[in-house]
Amino acid sequence: MIAECITSRPLVSGDKAIICLGDSFTQGQGAWSNQTWKKYNNRIDHKIIKDDLEIEIYNNSWPSQLVKNYLPEYVAVNLGVIGTGNKAAVKELYLNPSINLQNISGGVLIYMLSGIERLDFINKTFPKHRHFDTVWPTPDHESEVWRAYANHMWSDKFSTIETILSIKEAETYCKANNLSLVLISAFEQRYTKAWFEKMVGTDNKNLVDSVPWDSFFNPQGCNSFIELLLKMEGKQELAGGSWYSHYSALKEPSKYITNCCHPTIDGYTVMANEIYNHLKTRKMI
To answer: CATH code at 277?
Structure first.
């Protein structure tokens, strides 16, 4: 059922596609109708998102709206996965052979970057859709794996270099498959050259310079899409991180951001419009 939602229609030879990589902000978490929100008393936990709830978010996600509303001649390929990190996001390009990406003749790959601190590794049972497990650097977490990552592996430098490698992999895939690359941050404010240089150090400046910085899209000058939506709600000052606690405490979704801390359908509509205008301005479509 979910496999059928990944593409807006089956890919055939010669198709042009908008391939979308990322986490829940790409898959579409939060994009439920008012009727669905009311059915669940305005509180939908990510642990119960399956079947009809999952189909609905695919249908209302920004990849779906982008193709449906602006680019019907393209096929939307939504490879976003709730909870994933950047490493897993780009690997999804290879882990869904049934959608036949080899049929694509060109198009755009939009890589919506997730939290920089997340670390992904293949789930040993390899489920059909959620192929990876993801951990955060939480030193007092109940999971031994999370604690090990926090205490023995993670650093800002580690996370930054991992991110650079993931971006370079996406760039290489684009060059090999006649795709334009667009890099966007979902909610992370630190995807800037200045931050990368600070974390990696002057000895590795060439590594930072190798990132295709001209592929980054900052919607209306914002460092992330959540910052833009906060700006539209008059709360841009929360973009540094406090937005999460603010919105999770709400009794119901706001205009653009839900109380599960994701865009609403209206929020994803804004995102699709901004991305379309960027693609058009850059003559990628």
So the answer is: 3.40.50.1110
